[in-house]
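User: Could you write out the 3D structure of this protein bound to beta-D-fructofuranose? I've included everything you need below.
Assistant: Certainly. Input first, then the structure.
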Amino acid sequence: GSYAGALRPQIHFSPPQNFMNDPNGMFVDANGTWHLYYQYNPTGIVAGNQHWGHATSTDLYHWVNQPIALFPPEERVYVFSGSAVVDVNNTSGFFPSQDNGVVAMFTLARYYENGTAGPQTQNIAYSRDGGYTFEYYDTNPVIDSISSQFRDPKVSWYEDHWVVVVSYAQEFVVGFWTSPDLKNWTFASNFTAHGLLGAQYECPNLVKMPVRDASGAVIDEKYVLAISIQPGAPLGGSVTEYFLGDFNGTHFTPSDAITRLTDFAKDNYAAQFFYGVPDGQNQVNMGWASNWQYAQRVPTGNLEGWRSSMTVPRVKYLTEAPRIGMVMVDEIYDLTPILDSRLKNSTFGNGTVALDYSSVDSGALYIEVNVTNINTFDLKDYSTLNISFASPASGEILQSGFYFGGDNPFFVNRGGIKGFDNIFFTDKFSTADVYSTGSDNGIASWSMKAVIDRSIFEVFVDRGIHAGTVVFYPTQPLTTLNLAAQLPAGARVSVDIWSLKSAWA
Ligand code: FRU
């Protein structure tokens, strides 16, 4: 596949060609190589015929496409989502003479000849070459099932045993099972019907994260249980929610009854955390940047022969945010390897920035905006900061910005982009309560970091407490940026814009 298409993201992972959905099997090995597997249809531009595609990276931006890692074992049996671990101590017995053996655990989904769904079971395969090629275990399945909706095992290590979370999708249950060896699994507990249900629970993830104070110091740690629901998200289609709590090796106990969403827009689903990030450090994940409502229809399929990218890699930890309580923060994983030149760096009160970035080959930018000294008692309707990206050729525009006086002060609007006409392709997204610092004394500051990459915009508001992932499909490339600030008296905005190097050129 060529990565030259006008809609093809240049700093994001997308498959060489054909259809991709969930990230799978992610782990980082002892040499610092990140492995990304993914739900892949190598023969079609819509979902179906699922295999595990594979790619590797040493910096999470430059990816090397690898041969397909898992193939369907039989006709009408497909390899659905799952995870992978490095079995350093050879608990499984598959690796008598090495400490870099990889075990993948995944769902096999059987279909009958008439097309109806048969049982979904949990299975393992092992790799003696560090995750490039796998052998199916000869006594699969390792967790049998009588359900056709039982899937997406995510394995992790807890003190002295393996734990897997797996979804009983249409019963709204996440099952917790334990194992000494990845082969023999014992039921431990169920987490049932919490939060938003939608029509199915999918792709659970259980992960331990540091809790940091506003200065960044680690003050605690907590478990996150993330569940992806689909269909039936509040904005339509698919979305991911998460719960905070404690885990004792067999049971997850939520700390509160709050349902938190990972994204305020619609294009971040089934994110998976990498296995192997050292204990106590921030976690790292990537999501599927699409939504089942329209993933199989987006125009990249007909125009360029591929569908879906992942989100940028994200660094995750927890923090206490004023008024909204404890939340998972998203930071963009270190962009240094793809940072190119600084195109703009200015500070002002009221004013505008106009930038023509048509000469940036990748079409990709990193944008940072900080507004300080906002007197929240002096906010007027006209106190705004708008940042938009446009195509002078077609007049298309992607808008985002901040309404200082409003209830939902940050917004993104893709309604001015014309290359995809679909009833479910929601135009506008917004998020509330985006001042986390200083609002007690009436003087607030506000920040935004974003990447735009041809057909995907990801924005991280207020230190990453609010994240929005928005795909968009212009008929002509967006090549100009405009920022306009009308701030309350005394407020200052500083703007920093960098071009990004293509990781695929
Ligand atoms: C989530 C999902 C998973 C399943 C996979 C199949 O997007 O439906 O539950 O394993 O996709 O491709």
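The helical segments are 300-304.
User: Perfect, thank you.
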